């Protein structure tokens, strides 16, 4: 079965972000597939490369990066949510004349159409953090 | 093509969830058949005459008027949640179909995908 996973909760302020990661790993371990992970609302903070958590706390953003790269799964952060919250890639930083970009490796900023496309094409869509 | 149901359960103000949910619904309706169900405090999103002047936020509720133009198929709300808040459908800024529990179950079952906001 093919899953789309949607993350609404931010790392360190919501359990949703880690629960989604654990669920995603369980999906693959069970022999299913994931067509895309879409980060929306505060979930886009997961894509902030400037997060520097204490050493005794889970590096949530890096864990997602490793999961995405290791399993070749797209990690998409919603552009409208990102711009409101100061998550920028080089293109957007240039467009809005900001001093720098901070998108974490492995994450891509894209539009809400990616959420709809993933939902339409998956057998199941599972949302975390509502 | 999958049909999609958007379920809105958050109040309109106090967080940006309702506004970003509406953005997702409008995007969804450009791709496929979409309906929307307002439950819980989500029914407050529909109340007419909202003003956000004192809040300093955007009054996104005006965008609900565009749902029909975007081709959103069914616009429904929870009848019990409506009554529990002392509201009736004449309080709403758009035409909405109140559903009982069985009606909401049928609506959810009728759609391939459900997105919660």
Number of strands of chain B: 5
Low-confidence stretches of chain A: none
Radius of gyration of chain A: 14 Å
Using the coordinates above, name the CATH class of chain A. Answer: Alpha Beta
The largest pleated sheet of chain A is described as:
5 strands, parallel
Q: Could you tell me the strand content of chain B as a percent range?
A: 15-25%
Q: If you consult CATH, what is the topology of chain B? A: Hypothetical Protein Ychn, Chain: A
Q: What attributes characterize this protein structure?
A:
heterodimer; A: 130 residues; alpha/beta; Hypothetical Protein Ychn, Chain: A; 5-stranded parallel sheet; 5 helices; B: 117 residues; 3 helices; globular
In terms of topology, how is this protein built?
The complex is a heterodimer of chains A (130) and B (117).
Chain A lengths: L1 E6 L8 H14 L3 E7 L20 H12 L3 E4 H7 L4 H6 L11 E4 L2 H9 L2 E5 L2
Parallel strand pairs in A: 1-2, 1-5, 2-3, 3-4
Helix pairs in contact in A: 1-2
Chain B lengths: L3 E5 L8 H15 L2 E5 L36 E4 H6 L12 E3 L1 H10 L2 E4 L1
Parallel strand pairs in B: 1-2, 1-5, 2-3, 3-4
């Amino acid at each position: 079965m093919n899953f789309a996973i949607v993350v609404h909760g931010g790392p360190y302020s919501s359990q949703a972000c880690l629960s989604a990661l654990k669920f995603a790993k369980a999906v693959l371990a069970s022999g299913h597939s994931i067509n895309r992970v879409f980060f929306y609302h505060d979930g886009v903070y997961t894509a902030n490369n400037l997060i520097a958590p204490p050493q005794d706390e889970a590096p949530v953003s890096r864990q997602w990066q490793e999961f995405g790269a290791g399993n070749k799964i797209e990690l998409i952060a919603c552009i409208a949510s990102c711009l409101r919250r100061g998550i920028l890639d080089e293109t957007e930083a240039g467009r809005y004349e900001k001093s720098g970009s901070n998108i974490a490796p492995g994450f891509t900023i894209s539009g809400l159409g990616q959420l709809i496309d993933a939902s339409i094409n998956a057998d199941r869509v599972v949302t975390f953090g509502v | 093509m999958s049909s999609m149901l958007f379920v809105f359960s958050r109040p309109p103000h106090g967080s940006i969830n309702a506004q970003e949910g509406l953005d997702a619904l409008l995007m969804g309706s450009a791709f496929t058949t979409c309906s929307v169900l307002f439950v819980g405090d989500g029914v407050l999103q529909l109340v007419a005459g909202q003003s956000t002047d004192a809040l300093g936020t955007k009054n996104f509720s005006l965008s609900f008027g565009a749902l029909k133009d975007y081709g959103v198929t069914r616009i429904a709300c929870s009848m019990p949640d409506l009554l529990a808040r002392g509201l009736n459908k004449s309080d709403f800024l758009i035409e909405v179909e109140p559903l009982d529990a069985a009606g909401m179950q049928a609506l959810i079952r009728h759609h391939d995908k459900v997105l919660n906001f």
